[in-house]
Design goal:
Layout: H1 2-18, H2 20-44, E1 65-67, H3 72-80, E2 84-90, H4 95-111, E3 116-121, H5 128-132, E4 140-145, E5 148-152, H6 159-170, E6 174-176, H7 179-186, E7 192-196, H8 208-221, E8 228-232, H9 235-239, E9 248-252, E10 259-260, H10 270-280, E11 285-287, H11 297-302, E12 307-312, H12 322-335, E13 363-367, E14 380-385, E15 415-420, E16 430-435, H13 444-450, E17 478-483, H14 484-493, E18 505-510, E19 515-518, H15 527-538, E20 563-565, H16 570-574, E21 580-586, H17 591-595, H18 597-606, E22 613-619, E23 636-640, E24 649-650, H19 659-669, H20 672-675, H21 679-683, H22 693-713
Parallel strand pairs: 1-3, 2-3, 6-8, 7-8, 11-17, 12-17, 20-22, 21-22
Antiparallel strand pairs: 2-4, 4-5, 7-9, 9-10, 12-18, 13-14, 14-16, 15-16, 18-19, 21-23, 23-24
Helix pairs in contact: 4-6, 8-10, 18-22
Length: 717
C-alpha cells in the first residue's frame, strides 16, 4: 500500500514538473478560495448595524441631570455630594418611562433647590448602568437621604404622589414642639412612633441618628408612609406621655396599651426599632394602591375577610383630607369596643393640673376564648404589670393569653380583679381584671377607675350607631381606602357608574361568602349613610341585597337570530311566560363556547319558524345573575319552558352538543300544548331518527355555510 501511494505521488510531481502551468493554476485557485472564505466571514460580522448612540431623554431646560450614556460613576458622585437625591433609571423606548418623564420634570422644578435629580439611561448596552444592574421593569426610582439608601418608590408615578414621598424622605421625622402638637400627633388615625431626645448637651444626642434611620427604614419597607415618626425635645411635653429618660422610643396605640421600645431586650438599632414598630402597629384603615399590572396584592387583602372598599377623591398634597378623616373616625368608632369615641390621650382640662399624668400601668386587653368556662360571666380581661412588686420592664403582651388556673380567687360580680402568682405561669407579677363587655355596659367607669388607660382619657362625644360594632357582631369588616382618581376602573367593575370618580363609591366584598353590596350612589359617601350601610351589613339578617354587575343593555341593530341577554334584561327575555327559552351560557375566554357557536346559530335559524321559541345567550363573565340562575361550568345550556319557568332543565353534561341532540332536547321539554304543533317539530321530525353518515356530512356543510353567512350579519361571541 505504501509503495502504491509513493508511486502515485511521484507521478503527480513528475506531471506538474512537465506542466508548470498546472501547478500555478492550483496555487492561484487555493489562494482565491482562501480569500473568498475570509471575505465572506468578514462580511457576516457587519450584517447587523450598530445601534445609534442615545440622545438626551429630558428636555434641556429641565432641572434634571440626564446621563443618557449610562454613566453610573457620575451618578454616584452626584448622589454622594447631595443631602437628598433622586435617581431615575429609564429605558428610552419604554412607554411608562416616557409618560413618567413629565411628572418627574414637574416635581424637579418644585424641589430642585432641595433634591438632586439624576436620570440614568440603563438600557444603553455600552453604559455602565446596563452592565451592573438587571432591572426587570422601567422606570425605577431610587431616593437617597445622605448615606442611607436606596429607598425604592413603588407608588403611583404622578407628580403629587412622587412629591409627597420625596418630602417624607426629606423630613422623615415630624417635630412635636408643644403639647398641642402632641395631641394632634396622637389623635391621628395612622400609627405613630415618638422619640424623646434632648439637644441641649449635644447637637446630635445619642440615639437620634439611629431613630432617624429607623424612620427611613420604615419608608423603605412601606412606600405609602402610613407609619409616622415624630421627635420630642421638650421635657415637659415628654412627661405628658410618661417619657422621663432621653433616648426613649414610645409607640402610641388607640385600643391596646401604648408601648415603650424594650431596649433592655433588643439592641437599639434602626432595624430593630423599625421591625418592632411594624409588628405592633394598629391598622384601622389601610390604603390600597394596586399598580395596575399583573399582581395579586388586591386579592391577598380581600382573602383576609369581609372588606369595606371606599373610593374617594384624594390629593396627596392637600393640607387636610376631610373625607378621609371622616372615614377614619368611623373606623375608629367601629373598633372602639370599650365604648369610647375617637381616642385621644387626655382631656384638655387635665393639661394644667400638675402631676395629673402619672405613669400609666403596663396593661393590655385580652379577649377570653369562648371555650373557657369563665367566659360565661367574663369575656374580657385586662392584664397589667404589678408595679407594687418593684420596677420591672414593660414587655409586649400581645402574645399572652389568660388561663383559668392563673387566678387565685374565683371570679364573680361585674368586675373582678385578682393577683397572678402562679409559679408555673408566665404571668407572674401581673394583675388581672375581668369584666363582661356588652352594649351599654355600666362597668366602664369601674374599669377605668381600676385600671386607667392613657388612651381612655379622651374627650367624650356622642356614640354613633357603629361604636364598638366590631365586638358585637361576627361579621367583622376591614376598612380600605382607594384613590378614585387612580383606581376608578376597579370601582366601575364593582358596580360604580362610568364617570363619577369625584363622587366616591363604597362597597362591601366578602369572597368567602360571595357577598357583594353597594352603597346607594344617590346618597353619597357621608357619615350617616356610611354608618347605616355598615350597620345594615352587620345585622344577622341583613336587609342589603346582593349587587349584580352587568353589561349595559345594547339596542339590537336590525333583526338578530340570537338574543343577547344581560343582567338588566334577563327577567324580561328569559322569564317571558309566552315563550320557551333556550339560554346558552358562555364566556369570552371559553374555547369550547366559541366552537359551539355554529350549532347554536343553526338552532336559532330553525327557531325562526316557531315564534314561541327564543334562543338566547349570556356572557356569564360580565353579567351576574341571581344565585338560582348561576352555573359553575361553561358552556352550559338551560331550557325554560313557557308557563313553567320554575321547572327549568339543564342540558345533560355527558351528551354531545349537536344540532340533532339540541332539537330532541327542546322537543322533549317544551310545553305539552305547543310541542306537538310546533313548526320546528314538523320540520325536523326526520332528525328524531338516527342520522346516516351522509346526512351528518350534509348537516356539517350546511351548518358551516349558515354559520359563515350569519357571521357577516352579526359577529359571534
Amino acid at each position: 500500500m505504501l509503495l502504491r501511494l509513493r508511486g502515485s505521488l511521484r507521478q503527480v510531481v513528475n506531471q506538474m514538473a512537465r506542466r508548470p502551468a498546472l501547478l500555478c493554476g492550483a496555487i492561484v485557485l487555493s489562494c482565491s478560495l482562501i480569500l473568498a472564505i475570509t471575505f465572506t466571514c468578514s462580511e457576516t460580522k457587519q450584517v447587523v448595524l450598530p445601534a445609534q448612540p442615545p440622545a438626551r431623554f429630558f428636555s434641556p431646560g429641565a432641572p434634571v441631570v440626564d446621563l443618557y450614556l449610562g454613566q453610573l460613576d457620575e451618578a454616584e458622585s452626584l448622589r454622594s455630594a447631595s443631602e437628598v437625591s433622586l435617581l431615575y433609571f429609564y429605558a428610552p423606548w419604554c412607554g411608562q418611562s416616557i409618560s413618567a418623564r413629565g411628572e418627574i420634570e414637574q416635581v424637579a422644578r418644585k424641589l430642585a433647590d432641595q433634591v438632586q435629580f439624576v436620570a440614568v439611561n440603563c438600557w444603553w448596552n455600552q453604559g455602565k448602568c446596563r452592565k451592573q444592574n438587571n432591572f426587570y421593569h422601567y422606570p425605577v426610582i431610587y431616593l437617597y437621604h445622605r448615606r442611607f439608601g436606596p429607598i425604592e418608590y413603588n407608588g403611583p408615578i404622578t407628580a403629587a404622589y412622587v412629591e409627597k414621598f420625596i418630602r417624607r424622605v426629606i423630613t422623615p421625622l415630624q417635630y412635636v414642639p408643644s403639647r398641642a402638637g402632641l395631641q394632634d400627633f396622637l389623635s391621628h388615625y395612622e400609627p405613630g412612633v415618638l422619640g424623646y431626645f434632648e439637644f441641649n448637651a449635644s447637637p446630635q444626642p445619642p440615639g437620634y441618628l439611629t431613630f432617624l434611620t429607623s424612620a427611613l427604614q420604615a419608608l423603605r419597607r412601606d412606600f405609602q408612609g402610613v407609619m409616622r415618626f415624630g421627635v420630642i425635645t421638650s421635657k415637659q411635653v415628654a412627661k405628658a406621655i410618661s417619657l422621663d429618660a432621653p433616648g426613649t422610643v414610645y409607640m402610641h396605640r388607640h385600643f391596646n396599651t401604648s408601648l415603650m421600645f424594650p431596649s433592655h431586650v433588643l439592641n437599639f438599632t434602626s432595624e430593630n426599632i423599625c421591625r418592632w414598630a411594624l409588628e405592633h402597629r394598629e391598622r384601622l384603615v389601610r390604603w390600597l394602591r394596586p399598580h395596575g399590572g399583573k399582581s395579586r396584592a388586591l386579592e391577598q387583602e380581600l382573602r383576609k375577610g369581609a372588606a369595606l372598599l371606599i373610593f374617594l377623591p384624594f390629593d396627596p398634597m392637600a393640607p387636610s383630607q376631610p373625607l378621609v378623616e371622616e372615614v377614619a373616625e368611623i373606623a375608629v368608632q367601629y373598633h372602639s369596643c370599650n365604648g369610647s369615641s375617637w381616642p385621644g390621650f387626655m382631656e384638655p382640662e387635665v393639661w394644667g393640673e400638675p402631676g395629673s399624668l402619672s405613669r400609666a400601668p403596663c396593661c393590655n386587653t385580652l379577649a377570653l376564648p369562648h371555650w373557657l368556662s369563665v367566659s360565661r360571666t367574663h369575656n374580657v380581661c385586662e392584664l397589667c404589670l404589678d408595679q407594687a412588686l418593684g420596677p420591672r420592664p414593660c414587655p409586649s403582651l400581645d402574645s399572652l393569653y389568660l388561663r383559668e388556673d392563673s387566678f387565685t380567687q374565683p371570679l364573680s360580680g361585674k368586675v373582678q380583679c385578682s393577683h397572678v402568682l402562679s409559679s408555673s405561669s408566665p404571668l407572674d407579677y401581673y394583675t388581672a381584671c375581668c369584666w363582661s363587655l356588652s352594649k351599654g355596659s355600666s362597668t366602664q367607669q369601674d374599669r377605668r377607675a381600676a385600671l386607667p388607660h392613657i388612651e381612655d382619657r379622651g374627650s367624650a362625644s356622642a356614640h354613633s350607631a357603629v361604636t364598638g360594632l366590631k365586638c358585637r357582631t361576627n361579621k367583622t369588616l376591614n376598612f380600605y381606602l382607594l384613590d378614585s382618581g387612580l383606581h376608578w376602573e376597579f370601582a366601575r367593575r364593582l358596580g360604580a357608574p362610568e364617570n363619577a370618580s369625584m363622587m366616591g363609591f363604597a362597597t362591601v366584598l366578602n369572597l368567602q361568602d360571595e357577598v357583594h353590596h353597594v352603597l346607594n350612589q344617590e346618597q353619597g359617601i357621608v357619615r350617616n349613610t356610611l354608618e347605616s350601610f355598615i350597620q345594615n351589613y352587620s345585622t344577622p339578617y341583613s336587609p342589603l341585597q346582593r349587587h349584580l354587575v352587568g353589561e349595559a343593555a345594547r339596542e339590537p341593530v336590525g333583526e338578530s337570530l340570537i338574543t343577547a341577554v344581560t343582567t338588566q334584561t334577563f327577567h324580561k327575555a328569559v322569564m317571558d311566560p309566552e315563550k320557551d327559552v333556550l339560554l346558552f351560557y358562555y364566556t369570552q375566554w371559553c374555547g369550547f363556547c366559541s366552537a359551539l357557536n355554529h350549532v347554536i346559530i343553526q338552532l336559532a335559524r330553525l327557531s325562526l319558524s316557531n315564534p314561541r321559541l327564543a334562543v338566547c345567550r349570556i356572557n356569564a363573565a360580565k353579567n351576574d345573575l341571581p344565585w338560582e340562575f348561576m352555573v359553575d361550568r361553561y358552556p352550559t345550556i338551560l331550557f325554560f319552558p313557557s308557563d313553567r319557568k320554575h321547572l327549568s332543565v339543564k342540558y345533560p353534561e355527558d351528551a354531545p352538543i349537536t344540532l340533532p341532540n339540541l332539537v330532541r332536547f327542546v322537543q322533549r321539554h317544551s310545553s305539552p300544548l305547543r310541542s306537538s304543533s310546533s313548526a320546528l317539530h314538523r320540520e325536523k321530525e326526520p332528525l328524531l331518527q338516527k342520522p346516516s353518515p351522509s346526512d351528518s356530512r350534509a348537516d356539517t356543510r350546511q351548518g358551516e355555510s349558515e354559520s359563515s353567512a350569519t357571521r357577516q350579519q352579526r359577529p359571534p361571541c
